[in-house]
Amino acid sequence: xxxxxxxxxxxxxxxxxxxxxxxxxxxxxxxxxxxxxxxxxxxxxxxxxxxxxxxxxxxxxxxxxxxxxxxxxxxxxxxxxxxxxxxxxxxxxxxxxxxxxxxxxxxxxxxxxxxxxxxxxxxxxxxxxxxxxxxxxxxxxxxxxxxxxxxxxxxxxxxxxxxxxxxxxxxxxxxxxxxxxxxxxxxxxxxxxxxxxxxxxxxxxxxxxxxxxxxxxxxxxxxxxxxxxxxxxxxxxxxxxxxxxxxxxxxxxxxxxxxxxxxxxxxxxxxxxxxxxxxxxxxxxxxxxxxxxxxxxxxxxxxxxxxxxxxxxxxxxxxxxxxxxxxxxx
Amino acid sequence: xxxxxxxxxxxxxxxxxxxxxxxxxxxxxxxxxxxxxxxxxxxxxxxxxxxxxxxxxxxxxxxxxxxxxxxxxxxxxxxxxxxxxxxxxxxxxxxxxxxxxxxxxxxxxxxxxxxxxxxxxxxxxxxxxxxxxxxxxxxxxxxxxxxxxxxxxxxxxxxxxxxxxxxxxxxxxxxxxxxxxxxxxxxxxxxxxxxxxxxxxxxxxxxxxxxxxxxxxxxxxxxxxxxxxxxxxxxxxxxxxxxxxxxxxxxxxxxxxxxxxxxxxxxxxxxxxxxxxxxxxxxxxxxxxxxxxxxxxxxxxxxxxxxxxxxxxxxxxxxxxxxxxxxxxx
DNA sequence: TTGTACGCGTTATCAT
DNA sequence: ATGATAACGCGTACAA
Lengths: 330, 330
Prior knowledge:
The structure is a homodimer.
Chain A: H1 4-11, H2 15-22, H3 30-43, H4 49-56, E1 61-66, H5 72-87, E2 91-96, H6 101-113, E3 118-121, H7 127-134, E4 140-143, E5 153-157, H8 159-172, E6 178-181, H9 188-203, H10 220-231, E7 239-242, H11 245-257, E8 267-271, E9 285-288, H12 291-307, E10 315-318, E11 321-323
Parallel strand pairs in A: 1-2, 1-3, 3-4, 4-5, 5-10, 6-7, 7-8, 8-9
Antiparallel strand pairs in A: 9-11
Helix pairs in contact in A: 1-2, 1-3, 2-3, 5-12, 6-7, 8-9, 10-11
Chain A binds a DNA duplex through α2 and α4.
């Protein structure tokens, strides 16, 4: 592949002039500049990124490490991040940690080694990752969940309040035995949603009971098992609060298998307003998270940090919106 | 951030020894090696990627440029690619071209500049991209669609056959006026699906008619408009073949708006077996693409190319599977 | 086995 | 305005 000195030779100038011409630096003689551009074009010259990054000690690349590329919530975040990053001249690379602490650590490691300008992360809770980040000065923004044992710029959702609202909504609709599938313990969004669920039960003066809670991974399969185990009880729940849209798929499949119709037979609220939720009969009541905005805000926070490294970290908490549909109407 | 010479100084050895010890090269005195490792750990040393890549003239990073991160089909491809890449010691970075030729070109440019080991791409059809790739030796694998005007390793699906089968299925189920929403013209998958649809009509001895075809982007909104425009006709179709799952959402919403029940009132087949398609009532008949496998095969093709650069490019064509469900049962 | 020294391709500094 | 050259951090050929 052609290098800068190939271009220089062809254009009959020095490498310094090529660099200046191609980067629009200083004042370069228009004629020379034209020669350089022509030569670069002819050779298909493309600056060597590693060399440039090495020399400049910086890159225009941001890394976003999300826990599930197949979850529309996270891909919507990615869109938000990308739009903002792109507008500011940064490229975004996406990595999928699959909610596995090891993979997360690995990708953070790669990002750090490649000296990306900044990292956006929806942490699994791996303290190794935190430690890794602590030892470096690369700016980090946590999205959706905070970093464990570390302050950083953070974009969160008020999960607790959202879960409480959803639970209260179910109670107001007359459901009395409300179950909850909050997701895995140890992940803050899951724990918060569980706490909010309990708040809601308390406010509604409904009896809380751990027998109505089943924890699992944020996957369809886990949710299927949890739902099945709840509904097979002698005293099954008459409503379910489900922690995300991937789990919702599992739950709804289980309900269908059991011949239970959402709304009439069992109230259902799930987090995330996926496009398909309106297609169901009845359509699904959801807690809509402003995923795109969360991504956009996170990216902006990171960009701000890059230009003003001194400032103290901030946490922005966005609000969800309950979208009431048929699955909570008897 | 600590450099290799910082480590060398702390361990009381030369940088060469540090390099050798950390990379497990040659034979290094165990005691020295231990000192090096300890020093590296103490300093939180992390090799400088750009410097290493510059020196080695290679990276262990693959780039996957897909046209829609919010489409489960492409994210499933990404999973397939990632699993294979990861197992071979490569990291994967994901870029979202949003089916915009300019963005695609830009990301290819970035990937080339960063000297990634290889590129996987679901091309928009941008010939600028092809030209860019042609001028470089970086291995490329096209996924889902071929590169325009260029041979390369390619992983395709037999879209034409799949569309024909789907159309024939509709015909056998008694639908007579079958419409088609194949996606944008100029994108091969769309054109092939349209061709297969016409094949199917011919085989079934049904009259083909361009008035039953509406082209749009691979988006829900485009599909909504297309569906509406078809169904508002005095002689509307009694069945629809829809080119992907994102468009299917738009179509199904439109049917619901019009009070049309899939299966009974109008047959519906869509490409892509998204998780939610079984939740509908009636569940959706789909053309299931082996997306994960397509990604895995593509990654393997790329890895093979990296180890054996000389070989002629190959094209692998996988087959789709028609999954019959209620939306094609009257 | 270990250390010295060079070069990867680029940008920035310093003369000219 | 332009050119020569040093330096970024690393790996490796060569010398010891």
